[in-house]
Amino acid sequence: MASSVYTKAQKRLHWAVALVLVVQVFLEVCRLGLFRQGEAGGGLDVTATLSFVLGALLLALVLLRVSIRREIGVPMPATPLAGYVHYALYFLLILSPVSGAVAWITETERSESVHDMMKFLLFAVVFLHIFQVLWGQFVAKDGTLRRMLPARD
Ligand code: HEM
């Protein structure tokens, strides 16, 4: 189903998910820093726990987003490729926190490497998505970015 614009709720959810991902990247950087220091003490667990909680929040926001999308639809993507990238984003936004929870519970090397792979793919696709949006806005000048910004009225 296609609607003509993104609703306020869809835009808020989009930026909430983006914000949670930015905080996750920040936590990841902190974790890597703590790993490098060797004797990380209790700090390591705090960032890992926060990352787990944010992962659960991310999953909840994404599932809500998917259900709204199914209910009221979304505008046609700017290009067919952008549409495939959106599907890949949803897929990885669900698989990343789920694989993180499995890694957290099982604590096996295999589950951790699956989670690392999901995170890597997610960030690669997010970069592609941002590139596409900026290209559409500033090179193709199709006004793509404005679709996800608050309406000016
Ligand atoms: C940082 C993590 C981000 C994630 C996970 C993400 C995810 C998504 C997803 C899944 C959609 C598809 C919405 C739908 O039709 O159902 C979308 C659309 C969109 N996003 Fe993002 N996004 C992110 C960051 C950004 C950023 C930084 C920008 C601005 C530079 C942006 C601008 C847009 C725009 C304009 C659309 C609508 C594109 C269109 O309709 O073709 N996003 N985003």
UniProtKB/TrEMBL annotation:
Subcellular location: Cell membrane
InterPro entries in the record: Cyt_b561_bac/Ni-Hgenase, Cytochrome_b561_oxidase, Di-haem_cyt_TM
Cofactor section: heme b
Any single biological process term in GO: respiratory electron transport chain
Mitochondrion listed as a keyword: no
Principal subcellular localization: membrane
Membrane topology type: Multi-pass membrane protein
Keywords tagged on the record: Cell membrane, Electron transport, Heme, Iron, Membrane, Metal-binding, Transmembrane, Transmembrane helix, Transport
CC annotations in GO: plasma membrane
Domain Cytochrome b561 bacterial/Ni-hydrogenase: 5-150
GO molecular-function term, one example from the UniProt record: electron transfer activity
Signal peptide interval: none
Residue ranges crossing the lipid bilayer per the database entry: 12-34, 46-66, 87-105, 117-140
Family assignment from sequence similarity: Belongs to the cytochrome b561 family.
Protein name: Cytochrome b561
